[in-house]
Amino acid sequence: MNKKLSTFSFAAMFIIVLQSCANYGDSLLYFNKNAKIPKVKTILYFNPEIFPDVTEIKEPTYAAFYTATSDKMKSFGNTKYMQVDTSIPFDEVDENMVREICKNNNADIAVIPKVKYFKVGFGKYVFSNQVVVSMKLYNAQGEFILETAYDTYKGNGRMLGSAENSVIIGTKGAIRKIEKEIKNHQILDHKSS
């Protein structure tokens, strides 16, 4: 009996540790509690800003990013998903441009993403397969709502694997955090009214 109980306890702890490790890489960097979060029917994604700005990695990064966003959006149910084939500088978001593009596309929220590759070594860039995927979320009025990030090294402790897989894992992790925060905020708003 004790052996079965200890085996069950070990298995339960192992599952909890694995679940915790997957969430360890995601982080909510900032949440604007004053921003209005609408019921989300349409999400608009801009192309991610890529750091470092190397032409050869842009297309594979965009492909991996949009593979992950389209996969993850299936879990959102009836929410529409749109891609805008332009980048907005992550640290200098033009809120008027976000508002105008949301208006023209009937989008409720816009996601401004960034994919940062880790540098390994000295001198020229030698890329690691690890990335940090950061996302800023804006409502249709151009108000900043939140910023989140997912670090694939911290989240999965991945040492091997492709950079494309890391972009997919990081993108899904960042979207999962956004989804959680939006649902929590909308539930809180619903309860308070």
State which percent range the strand residues make up.
Answer: 25-35%
Number of strands: 7
What proportion of the residues is helical, as a percent range?
Answer: 40-55%
Largest beta-sheet characterization: 7 strands, mixed
Low-confidence stretches: 5-22, 187-193
- Assembly type: single chain
Q: What's the order of the H and E elements?
A: HEEEHEHEEEHH
Q: Kindly, what is the distance between the CA atoms of the first and last residues, rounded to a whole number of angstroms?
A: 51 Å
The averaged pLDDT comes out at: 80
Radius of gyration: 19 Å
Q: Structural class, judged by helices and strands?
A: alpha/beta
The gross shape turns out to be globular
Number of helices: 5
Identify the notable features of this structure and list them briefly.
single chain, 193 residues, seven-stranded mixed beta sheet, 28% strand, globular, disordered C terminus
